[in-house]
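Researcher: Next entry in the queue.
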Amino acid sequence: MTTADTLEPETLEERPDSGRRTSRGGSWRRALRRDWQLYSLVILPLLFFLIFRYAPMLGNIIAFRKFEPGGNIFGEEWVGLRYVRMFLNDPTFWNVFTNTLVLGGLTLLFCFPLPIVLALLLNEVRNRKMKRFLQSVSYLPHFLSIVVVAGIVMQFLSLDGPVNQILQMAGGEPISFMQRPEWFRTIYVSSEIWQTVGWGTILYLAALTTIDEQLYEAAKIDGASRWRQIWHVTLPGIRPTAVTLLILNIGTFMAVGFEKVLLLYNPLTYPTGDVISTYVYRMGVQSSNMSYAAAIGLFEALIGLTLIISANVISKRTVGTSLW
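Model: Structure for this entry, 324 residues:
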């Protein structure tokens, strides 16, 4: 066998690969030249994420370096895991961590399934004017500023507010809701439900429109009641949307609404209302302990990343739907 005969199979095997690589590169270049106006629209979003999302990640280095205001933005000296050990040994942090888990769990427990229930109820309304009216009323709280929502909550629950006036009319004593730690979680979750549930139905109502009507007709022919149709046709039809939103909600599980908690809580409600995000704010901004706050924030981010990856893997294996 000659040398040419030995090299010929390798040459034949390499030619298709090189051709495919050339064609792929050429196709991308042709698409870019042809649709460069469309691709140019991506520049600003990419710059936004690069400047405001990815570049600030460099600041996480101060979780391992001693940072002093007015000094080097990346810290003055390397201290290793000193700040990590500090918050792991801090009883206040673990109380805050528990509050975050409880508030995040309650928010997920109530604010995730209720939009599905509301979307199913709205889908059953046959009068189009009534349906639009109910949708508009349920959407409105979403457009209110969190500051306005917090103000409404505090006015309603103040000692001379409507809630306490009703209690007094019923023969009860007024309750200082905003100063009682045992009431904070109920107040926060209730306000979240009122503000977000209506807006959360939009995606589910859109998903309901994609379900084939022939499936409902077939279910009727088989003798399925309306509840059976919802269970066997409607819910499976919106399952991919529900699973995707569940994964996203789990990913933000630790990031309990910072703004609303900050506006609603006070030192009297710290035992149940103080969460990681507000604790980081107090430590970093108010106490100027940036390195300590950065270490806690990095810990929170790692937990969120672990949760969203775990939820995605479990969903892909059990339901067959995932983000990636």
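Model: The longest strand covers residues 65-66.
Researcher: Noted, moving on.
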